[in-house]
Every structure is written in structure tokens, then in C-alpha cells.
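#random but structural
TW: two for the price of one
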Amino acid sequence: MTVRTCAAVAVIFVSAGCGASSTQEKPLPPLNAKAVTLKDGFTTMERLAETAKKEGSLTVMALPRDWVNYGEIIDTFSDKYGVKVNELEPKASSTREIQAAAQLKPDVFDLSLDVAVANADKFAPYKVSGWQDLPDHVKDARGAWYAGYGGYMSIGYDPRKVAAPASFSDLLKPGYTVALAGDPLRNAAGFNGVMAASLTQGAPQTRRGVELFTKLRQGGRLTEPAKANVVVDWDHSNAARAAADADAWKVTIPKDAPLGAYYVQAINKDAPHPAAARLWEEFLFSDEGQNLLQKGFARPARGEAMLMRGTLDTEQAGKLPVAPGPPVLLTIPQEDAAKSYLKRAWVG
């Protein structure tokens, strides 16, 4: 709306001295559901939300409801915007998401960084409203993918049975029965568990990690998570378990192995619900969405900027496992080299 002679009452159609004839409505630009920004595609969040609601639903994949609080996030999004969320294959891997996309047609992806980088041509570029808050090294310059949350590899342990390990090498001491969160040849958490144990002065030495877990296996002390008193997993997973029973589970991030990683978001370029897909990303990267991720003990990608603005839930932030310092982030070449080595050297 514009008012020719009474700027002070720009939101009022009729007021003293300003008749209705002095107002005119500026038409909104046409919708572009595949635009790269909110402003270019929908002008406002209200218009985006209205368009998404008309589409009727959003299809997600590989989002376990107990993973970084996705259950509450999905329910909050659905209730807030009146968009039904179809949840497919919650336990699927990042690779499976890509492989099944043509058949299952998810609107959005939640992926490990390496899978996202390798498949960037399958995504629709979109820069969320909080784009400038995201560190440059964890987002694609074109907007194909962008980090939503991250975490550190950690050691979860039962304090009733073992002492707190100060390093991965401590796990070789008597009494520790150890599990990885998954098969390192197929599971990102399992792979990164081996890589965290491989760090030497901040650099990965894959052989070192493989040798540690080989010794545990040979000693009969590498087992499955349900039987272990130590589980090597992302800190948000171990922290969620500790929050459920603090007496039975603790979590630590070894000072000499601060391996971190981000999970990134992307929109399917063939998304059946393009507006709902963009609304989902706007919600995930809003202050509300980022705080909900942190409630699941993840480290929100916009966390530093939110802290500076006073919008970060600092009470919840204080419940996260203490980080020993900035994370070591593996490069794609380092990951590729490590995976090649594991294919040759890992015995399942």
C-alpha cells in the first residue's frame, strides 16, 4: 500500500485529511516457486507459506524423529504452516537418499557434506534468509547446498562401569568394550568414528584409526552398541542418551581428536512441492528452527550469529558437550583417500 500525502499513516486507508481516493494498491510481482531467494520468488514469508499450504504437503526422507530433534521439528513445521509432512525411510543413508530420489521424489535432502558436493547438479539453488550467517566454507556459493547443523565425534560411556576416557588410545585399556555407531564402510558416523581415532596433531592418519579398532576386535572388545560400555558416535547422539539417564551415560570429546562435521540441506531440483521445500528450509534456518536443532544437541550452523544477536537459546547451548576447540573438518580429498584405504584394510 502507498499513501500519496500522508506517509505517517501509510498502513491506514482512511484518516484525518487523507481520503480513500489518495491510496492505491501496488500489485505484488508474480510468484516464482523456483527462484533462488525468498524475495525474488515470493516477496514475503506470508506469501511463501500461503503457496506452500496450497501445495498441501512436503515429502522428506532420512530424518529419524530421534535424530537432532527432527520429530519435534517436523511436527512444529506442520502445525505452524498447515503443511502435511510425508516421512519416508527415516533410517536411509545420504547415498540412499540420492539413489532413491527419482523414485521416491523427496522435496528436500539432509546429507553428509561429501554426498552433497558430489551431487550438487541434482539440487535447486536456494539461498535462505539467513544465508549471510552461514560460514562460507560450509555452503555452496550458488546456493545448491548449505550446512544446517553440525557436531563433534565423541565417546559416550557408562560411568558405572568404566572411567572417563581421555583419548581414543585409552579405549585399549582393560575394561572397555567398544562399539562404533555403524559400519564405517556404509555409515557416516561409523566412518567418522574411525577417522576421529586417526587424528594426529589435527591431521588424519587413517591407518592409525584402523589399527586401534583392529586391536579392539582382536581382543574381543569391539562389539555392537547394545552390548558396549563405550559407544563412539556424534556428540548429539551421545548427549541425547546422557540427557535421558545422566547416571548411566556420559559423553566426552577427546582433546586430541576434535573431529567435526556438518550435515547440509538441499532442495530437490525436481521437487513436487517447490514452495513447501523452500518454506521448510526457511524454517530450519530461522532462529526457531536452529534452536530446535540445538534442543536435539546439534550445533546450529547459524549459532555464532544468533549468539551475537541474542537469539540463541543459551541455556540449551550450555547443555551441549564441552568442545575442546574448533573442529577439524576433513576435506573431500581426505575423505576420499580414507574411504579408499578402508575398503582395502577394514575387516567387518
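TW: number two ↓
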Amino acid sequence: MTATAALHLDGVSLAFGGHRALDALSLTLAPGEVYALLGPNGAGKTTTINLILGFLAPDSGAIAVDGVDAVADPLAARARTAYLPETVMLHPALTAIENLRYFTLLAGRRIDAARARALLTDAGLQGEAHGRRAGGFSKGMRQKVGVAIALAKEARLLLLDEPTSGLDASAANDLSTTIRAASARGIAVLMTTHDLFRVHDVAGRLGILRDGRLIDERATASLDPAALERLYLAALAA
């Protein structure tokens, strides 16, 4: 029996005022797959994320998250999705544990402090930070709490929007470890990024968007870092 796709986009198009932001985008992610969506600013990457989250409705095409129609029932699809924006917003006066329990409760689930600690550890947050207030957290620490929230709500799809922007090398490496851990749990990961090194490090497949169209798609293992850079630059120049 074939597993239900974690994410399926079929011929998704959307125009704003005559400008086609997405043009017949089709994309499928299997459970546990890490997929990198590349492209210049304005290519349609953020529009794609907003469509998956149900913040926009397509003009045509279908979107499904874990088998749920994200157009007809965006709330149910969103319940299966975790989204980490470029800056993860946490309540600054609450600790990591309290933030995790709070946001998990908003998602309709209740966890105790021991479970929260275990999830934060799984997401890569060091134990000494579990009881600290989030107001002093770095971007990388905030991301780890965000991943713990995704684990707590048992999301089937994790959306990452420019996750390495503003991270130092150590924090970016930690993020790669966290993405692999989510993938190992069967969570599919769709990341939009300009960070080609991170793409080669964690993604199994990549797609290149240009002017709303998916112009290339490759298995990352088929490219060494230099070939990946050449492919990306050629796509931007086309």
C-alpha cells in the first residue's frame, strides 16, 4: 500500500493583478523527505508557502497535506503542518518549556513538563536553556523551540522559510541536525532558501522556481556543491 504523500501540489496557479505568481506548480513530498525550493526573490517561494498554509487560495490546481484538501479544509491541513518563519516568535516572558506547552495547547494538545523537556532535547535545545525565558534566546534557539512545537503537535509537514538567514556557522549546522531528526521521525520538510551549502547538506531533492514556474528539479545526491552552484546560477541567468 502506497503511503499518503505528506504534501501534494497539482498544477497550482495563482495570479495577482494580471501577474502570474505561480504557474502550474506540481510538487510531491513523501513522508520524511527533505525538499529545498530555490529561486530568486519574487520567484514564488513565499507564495507557495502561503498557499500550503491556506492564507491564499489558488486560481486553479489542488493542494493536499497528508491527504487533506488544503483548499477545501485549510484548518485541518494546517493542523498537520508546522511553519517556521524566518523569525520564530515566542513569548519573551515565558521559558522554553512554557512556550512549548502554551503553543502545543493552542494546537489542541496538552503535554506535561517532562514531555516538553524531552521534545526540546530532541529538537536540539540544550537542557540548561529549557527553563530560561525566551526573551534572551538567539535565532537558532528560537528555531529549536519551533521544531519542538512541530514535534509536539505531530505535524506531518514542516515548512521552513529561509531558515539559515542570520545564523552563524554553528547554529546553521545545528539546524541541519534538527532537520535530519525531524525527517527521521517521518516529518516531510519543505525549505525555501538561498543557502546552497545547506541544500546539499540536508535535502534529498531540490527544485528551482523562476517567475512562478518550476524550471528544474534534481536529486541532490546527483550534484556536487560546485555543480549545484553552477545549476543555480545558470537558472537565474536563463
